[in-house]
Amino acid sequence: MEIQYLEFLKHLVRFNRQVYFDHNATTPVSNPVRKKMDQVLKKHYGNPSSFYGIARQAAELLENARQNVADAIHADPSEVIFTGCASESNNAVLKSLSAHFYPKKRKIVSTPIEHPSIMNTLTYLETQGVSVEYCSVDEKGRVMLADLEKRVDEQTFLVCCMLANNETGVIQDLMAVTKIARQRGALVLTDCVQALGKIPIDVHAWDVDYASFSAHKLYGPKGIGALYVKQGSPFTPLLHGGRQEGGLRAGTESLHNIVGFGVACQKIDQLLLAAGKIRSLKQQLIEQFRRIKPNCVINSPEIDSECLPNTLSITFPGVENSGLMGMLDYRGIAVSAGSACSTGDDIPSHVLRAIGLSDQAARETIRISLGHDTSARDIHYVAQVVRDYLEGRTSFVNMIAAGQLNETILFDENTFILDVRPPVDRKKFKGLPNAHEVNPISIENYLKQLPRNKQILVYCPGGGLSIMISYYLKAKGFKRITNLRGGLDEWRKRRSDLYEKYAGQNIIVLEPDKSD
Ligand code: PLP
User: Fold this and answer.
1) Residues enclosing ligand 1, CB less than 6 A?
2) Which helix (H) or strand (E) holds 418?
3) 118 C-alpha to center of ligand 1: Å?
4) How does pLDDT run across 62-94, given as a tens digit for each residue?
5) Residue 4 burial by CB count (10 A; 0-12/13-18/19+): exposed, middle or buried?
6) Mutate to test the pocket of ligand 1, among 69, 82, 94, 117 (most ligand atoms within 8 A of CB)
7) How far, in Å, from the CA of 267 to the mean position of ligand 1?
8) CATH number of 398-509
């Protein structure tokens, strides 16, 4: 009896354990930040642009926060503009400078591993006539300076190079990049979103013109960014309106978020001090993974000065990341595949491609990003779960290859087809016949409607989301779960005959159970 009870307790501990290893996607808001933000929300509701007492207090808080951010990046407060997010900061610089220089100067040189808020803005600017060139990076994502030097010419008005990459953690030699840009009279924008709080930042020493930051990567709130604009560097606002932020960014300031950002920046010294501990935990994890799977490939640079202390991109050859991530999620561990923004669309990450990974290798890659609350126990636990998975000791979700999904299965009475596609995909493509559509974001509200005596075949567009949900259903006690590998996209390709004949037939839309 006692042993049974102990087993039960172990089971509970195992499945209630939560390990958050996705700090590059976002971080939890720290207590000091939350407390100060609460206070601002309660007491300091004045509009910083007004003139009476309560507004002046708000304006003072705003300027204090600006000072905190400026101190953290070694800038003058007059050079810091608060924005809605770092994506806005990046957009503002790229669009502002293109409007300022084009067509007198036409070119931007960037790297192929920038965040989508840079990459997609550059793609847009190309449609407006701006010419964009991407310099080469090596297998660790380091900018090849000789190639950069060749590309930056008299036509180049901007060199855009992130300080540290969100997926692999590679840190660039920004001084060298700036030197090359300066030789040709080009300005420099650097995305420092992942670097702030993990490595020291000194925008003045690096002599960059623009730098972008985001509070939610350093235990601050989401929805608040900052932009450094060097004194004298050209800049026109993206948002026109009131005179906020010195006329450079219209819109009433989100004071609680700004103050939260300021408090997060005040804690930077503590965060930087914790970097050594985080790096050594990451190293322990690498060693454990190498023992478990000797042919695993570390995509992040292994030289300390070249990589963020917390970031690890690792490929497990032969192990699809969707299955592994689903399993990790099932055991309470959050990691990501590419950048958070691209997770779910099942397209191999552009960063991994740029550093030379094949599409298959990219699908076998996960990103682990530690935080200041990560413990040695967490490392041990994750390594243990990965070992169990790779050595076949965990209950697997069954997989069915898209080509094998035939009429017998589609019309089998003992198979319940569960469509967990997002609404956009449902608008584009008809689903499997006899499918039951649910809203994948609130899957927990449909559990009572799913049969426990049937095989549940789960599918999504690409096979990634469905595997996560499959493991979730396993955790909820559903025994017979099968995931469609490659999802509807693959099935449409492999079985276009069946798609033409049956897709969209007899679809049932389930209503969420409100009583849960
Ligand atoms: N730049 C990098 C390198 C990032 O990692 C992110 C967020 O993931 C951003 C920009 C965008 O930041 P925000 O979420 O504040 O728009």
Assistant:
1) 85-87, 115, 117, 162, 166, 191, 193-194, 214, 225
2) strand 415-419
3) 10
4) 999 999 999 999 999 999 999 999 999 999 999
5) exposed
6) 117
7) 20
8) 3.40.250.10
Give the distance, in angstroms, between the CA of residue 135 and the centroid of all CA atoms in the same chain: 23
Query: How much is the average pLDDT of 432-453?
Result: 94
Q: What are the domain boundaries of the chain?
A: 15-21+274-390, 31-269, 398-509
Residue located nearest, by CA, to atom 8 of ligand 1: 25
Q: Do 263 and 33 contact (CB within 8 A), yes or no? A: yes
**Domain 15-21+274-390 CATH class label:** alpha beta
- Tokens 């200041």: give the residue: 372
Using DSSP bridges, classify how beta strands 131-134 and 107-110 pair: parallel, antiparallel or unpaired. parallel
- Tell whether the model's pLDDT for residue 354 goes beyond 90: yes
Ligand 1 centroid – CA 321 distance (Å): 23
- Domain 31-269: give its CATH code: 3.40.640.10
> 85, 161, 192, 341: which is the annotated catalytic residue?
341
Report pLDDT for 348: 79
- Is 341 part of the annotated catalytic residue set? yes
d(CA 349, CA 338): 6
- Testing ligand 1's pocket by substitution, the residue of 94, 214, 216, 311 carrying the most ligand atoms inside 8 A of its CB is 214
Bond before 451 cis per omega within 30 degrees: no
By CB atoms closer than 10 A (0-12, 13-18, 19+), residue 249 is: buried
pTM score of the predicted model? 0.84
Q: What pLDDT does 341 receive?
A: 43
> What's residue 62's pLDDT?
98
Residue 459 has pLDDT above 90, yes or no: yes
Q: Tell which atom from ligand 1 comes closest to the C-alpha of 224.
A: 15
**Is the confidence at residue 436, as pLDDT, over 50?**
yes
Q: How far is the CA of 87 from the centre of ligand 1 (A)?
A: 6
